[in-house]
Every structure is written in C-alpha cells, then in structure tokens.
Design a protein that fits this description.
It is a single chain. This protein is α+β, with helices and mostly antiparallel strands and about 220 residues long. The chain has six helices and eleven strands. The strands form two sheets. Strands 1, 7, 8, 9, 10 and 11 form a six-stranded antiparallel β-sheet that branches. β10 and β11 form a beta hairpin. α3 runs parallel beside α4 and α5 packs antiparallel against α6. The radius of gyration is 23 Å and the shape is elongated. The N terminus is likely disordered.
C-alpha cells in the first residue's frame, strides 16, 4: 500500500477555512459546504449548523478525514441509497490528499430520480466543486528551535536562515539575541550543523516544540 505523503516526508495538504459551492442536476439542487476541522466533535457541530441552515432539504450527506498521523475517516449517505453519497464524497477527499477536512453536500430533491449512477456522479462533482472553492494549504511537520547567539553570530545565522527560506517567529534582543525559528523535520540536523560551524559552536540551540506549519496568504501559521 502506498504511504500517505505525511508519513514519508512530513508534508500534508489541508484547507485554510470554509468554502461553499452550488450546482444543479436534473432539477435537484446540491450545496457543498467545506470546513477545516480537527475533531469529530467539531465536524458534527458544523453538520448541525448545516442542517439548521438548510432545514427543509431532504439529505445532508457528508464525509471527513481528520488527523495528521492516526487518520480517522467517516461518511454518511443520510438516507440516499447506500454507497451513492457519503463514500463518493470521501473518495474525493482522499483523491485530493486532504486532511482535517469535513465536506457536507446538501440535496434539495427536484422531483426527478437520478438513479444510482447519477447520484454517485452528482455527489462526486459537488464535493469536487466545493473543494475547488477552498484554499488548499501545504502543512509541514517540523520543530521550533530556540537559537541564542551574540551579535557577531546574528548576521551569520540570519544568512543561513535566509538561504533556506526559514521563518523567524520571534526575536528578543538583550545582551544576547534569542531567536525562535521554524524548521522542517528533515532540515533540522543539517541546519544545526551549519549554525554550529558558522558560529564556532557559540550558539545555544534547543528544540522547544514540534508542530505543523504552513504559509497562508503570505503569513506563516503554526498548528499546535
């Protein structure tokens, strides 16, 4: 079995927020709502919101993929013929390689039966359309490093970080300089070696945490 991308290189695709898309299939109206979630409870809260918003709709079919490492997946046909709604939505999420995402497709029945194949196509296309309206972000697994240096070493460290495009989360300037830096897991050991060599071992280096992080609209966002 092929491993998920996060298992091999510490990279995971997700979405940055909610999105919505509408479509029509033979007079039936489909509304896809997409949410960023981190727990089943959160997903069910969004489902309840959707049910209240579209209280007069016949079906609210859904699927989610939650988690970074131990992934949890669930789906529901919500009254549609078995396998025609929830599973197609889930397959779209899997195919897009997304995590921590909840997709609900609401259907207003238009009076014309779509048949099993028609329902699968309709829910598949609706889920794809909803996801296409979402902002996809690439989350990277790594660490927060605390770097303590004197002012002589600061320029060398800034140069090394700039070469790698690494983000400085925080800087504290006193008699020495304390930097908090985000570093992808696979780059940590090489960066530490480079900083140690460049500053003649005069930089204090400590890992202070692990996290997922991503560039969202030009800003680095940390997912604790």
């Amino acid at each position: 079995m092929e491993k998920a991308r996060w298992e091999t290189d510490g990279i995971q695709d997700s979405i940055s927020g909610a999105a919505r898309a509408r479509s029509w299939k033979k007079k039936s109206r489909f509304i896809a709502e997409v949410f960023l979630v981190h727990s089943e409870e959160e997903a069910m809260q969004y489902l309840e919101q959707v049910r209240k918003k579209y209280w007069d709709a016949r079906h609210h079919c859904w699927a989610y993929v939650i988690g970074e490492e131990r992934v949890t997946e669930r789906c529901s046909d919500d009254g549609e013929p078995s396998g025609t709604a929830g599973k197609p939505i889930l397959e779209v999420i899997r195919g897009a390689g997304l995590h921590n995402i909840f997709v609900v497709v609401t259907r207003y029945f238009g009076g014309t039966l779509l048949g099993t194949g028609g329902l699968v196509r309709a829910y598949t296309e609706s889920a794809r359309e909803g996801i296409s309206h979402s902002q996809i972000i690439t989350k990277i697994y790594g660490f927060k490093l605390n770097l303590t240096t004197d002012y002589t070493g600061l320029g060398k460290i800034q140069y090394l970080l700039g070469q790698r495009g690494l983000t400085i989360l925080d800087s504290v300037y006193t008699e020495k300089v304390d930097l908090t830096v985000l570093i992808p897991k696979e780059e940590e050991s090489k960066l530490i070696a480079e900083i140690t060599e460049a500053t003649n071992g005069q930089t204090g280096i400590a890992r202070t945490g692990e996290c997922w992080f991503a560039n969202v609209d030009g800003e680095m966002v940390v997912f604790e």
